[in-house]
Amino acid sequence: MIGRLIRAGSAASLIIGAWIAWGQPTIAGAVDASYAAVGEETSVPYGWVDFCKRYESECGDPRAAAVDINLSAKALHDVNHVNHWVNTHIQPISDMDHWGVIDRWDYPLDGRGDCEDYALLKRKMLIDLGFPRQGLLITVVKDENQEGHAVLTLKTSKGEFVLDNLNDEMKPWTTTGYRFVKRQSQEDPNIWVMLGPPVEAPLYTAR
User: Class assignment of domain 2-26+34-194?
Assistant: First the structure.
């Protein structure tokens, strides 16, 4: 089902069907959050480069002006549903167990994936629902054990929030406990910018 979703580009219709089947989960509220300080351009993760070789149409958008997500009640509703649906329907698995390689970013077409795969699917679903891709930023962090991890940052009119496969709640970025390393530029998803001092953050840990 997820494979058909990606290939057909019909994320919105699938999500609507999932809402009907699952009912209406409790929607977490969103308090105002702050904005992360963005630094200079930095290296692009190999996983993103490799992903773009396989999904050229997903990475070929022209450079565009930065746009934040208007975090209306409807937008908050949709974000929480997407986050909950993906976290519920994708089974976590490491890239080594899944693909036999240390690091591979991909859509979880078979219903299995690791942290960046969750983030990529959430990003696509929200874009298909009409959210601006400039406000949906794949982000590399380090967790409390200094292990690499990936989340989706939402840059909104109320600050920056994180969607994480390890938590169903949309959280202000400052409350995650993570060290933020780098993320996609709002203007160009193929350019990445620092969020702190240079640091190595491999993403092969199963999350």
Answer: alpha beta
